[in-house]
Amino acid sequence: MSHRTPAGRVHGLGSAQHGVDHWWGQRLTALALVPLVIWFCISLVGLVGADHATFTKWLSTPGRAVTMLLLILATFYHMKLGLQVVIEDYVHSRGWNITLLVLNSFACVLLGTASAFAVIKVALGG
Amino acid sequence: MAQVERPLSPHLQVYKPQLTSVLSILHRITGVGLGVGTLLLAWWLVSAAYGPDHFEVSQAFIASWFGRLLLFGFTYSLFYHLCNGIRHLFWDAGWGFELKAAYSSGWLVVIASIGLTVASWIAGYASGGAL
What we know:
heterodimer, A: 126 residues, mainly alpha, 3 helical TM bundles of succinate and fumarate reductases, elongated, B: 131 residues, extended
């Protein structure tokens, strides 16, 4: 039995004031990635040794392009959250901790944006 | 106040490795590895956006022995992280916490991740490419 008032529960975002956002985001993207990763692996097997024209043709259907974009979005968000926890757990020096957390965020957004743009460009025909 | 040297737990040097703890740290190691591997994924996609000449370069790198080695590690890490991630989701739902269940699901993850990796490479080679 909890002794907290309903208001206390609503406002209880914890000491970091982030609530369960990180935890929930990690699980939600994990769940989304289960079918997406299976689809991606099966697709990759079929694309083994494909040349540029075959790959471009494969990616240019809306269904595949959108699924690839969802995969990219979920992957890089999941990666940002996961690597953040690893840095928080193992890098104890304050300066390095902050530096790596910033670099992690930048790197995930950069790689995700570049990948997403590449998919859109290829899907729309080069 | 004097700094007290408190004992830290667990002492990994004297702690007998168990299936559960080994699989747990392997989840993190494969996670970090997959993070590094996304560099390859991003390069591959961006090279396709630059055109056939660039795509050929990244495809040739992936088809090289070093590229294949990286890809094999990436595939195994992906399937391991996927299988063990599903195990974690079941735990989050409150299932499988009993010691016996944790060991059974652990061995299942080991067998499934190896099986899926081998199966996907056999399928990859059978589907007939240069890779």
